[in-house]
Amino acid sequence: MKRIGVVSDSHGDRGHLEQALMKMEAGGRLDCLIHCGDGGQDAVSVTGNIMQVIIVRGNCDGWGCPYQEEMLLPIGGVTFMITHGHRYGVKRELDLLADSAVAKSAQIVCFGHTHTPYCAYHQGVLMINPGSCAYTSRCAVITVDDHGEYTTELL
User: Which end of the chain is more exposed for a tag (fewer CB within 10 A), N or C?
Assistant: First the structure.
């Protein structure tokens, strides 16, 4: 079983990011932490012993930011699409992001940008936005079992 923590939009608020990590790890050690942009560097400084840290660039991370804008990541037989979401117009609608995920054969999309928690299926793809962890410590945990089945919890 794999436990994946998801955060986004920390915007330099490392204190609340640390609180989010404590909430996520209260259910067990994380195997992976995904940061969906706008403060990804914050995750580098607070992740401790998490085996894998995945960070994508958000619209506020600047052009000198070394992170990719989007990634596909297989974890436990499930393909994750990770993006900040600003290039997909997620503040207006999620169809473009869902279309892209389907075209890339992703089962789960992790995104941010809106600062609002969201977890629902679109076009058969699970769309997860943990919300902004800045000032709130909002986050999500995805658990993937050995058969590729998954559950999600917004915290």
Answer: N
Could you tell me the maximum CA-CA distance found in the chain, to the nearest angstrom? 39
CATH of residue 48: 3.60.21.10
* 9 falls within a domain: no
Can you give the residue range of the structural domain that contains 88?
14-139
Q: Answer yes or no: is 147 within a domain.
A: no
Helix residue spans in the chain (DSSP H): 14-25, 40-46, 95-103
81 or 64, higher pLDDT: 81
* Average confidence (pLDDT) over 122-137: 96
* 66 to 54, 56, 57: CA distances (angstroms): 12, 9, 8
Q: What number is the average pLDDT over the span 27-40?
A: 94
Q: What is the mean pLDDT of residues 68-78?
A: 94
Has residue 110 been placed in a domain? Answer: yes
For residue 127, the one-letter residue type is M
Contact 152, 126 (CB under 8 A): yes
Amino acid at 126: L
Q: If you ran DSSP here, which 8-state letter would residue 123 be given?
A: T
What value does the mean pLDDT of the chain take? Answer: 94
